Amino acid sequence: APAIVRLMKRAAWILRRYGPQTASEIVQRQRAIDPGVTFGHIHAEQLGNIWQQAAKHGKRKLVLEITADALGSDEWDGHINVEVKESQTWAEYEQAQAEARAQEVN
Fold this sequence. Notes:
- This protein is of the alpha+beta class.
- Helix content is about 55%, strand content about 25%.
């Protein structure tokens, strides 16, 4: 549940700073694992949870940037930061496949 706690704290901060509509949009993007979403100071073992959450929201593909959460190798304690660079839903994939087949016919 620590990820949920971080998400709720982040949502509360965004709500205070930007207002309810933006906070709701950001929480939804985080929940759906959309591009631009970041997860900070997590263990590598949590990557599977990120994928499971994305799959629940119809994702077929994620492109992630994973970096050590430290300024130097001597400080690194195993935590990582993850940023979602790209994603693709099954619907987007199927649409792209249909368009490719249509191009081949023409």
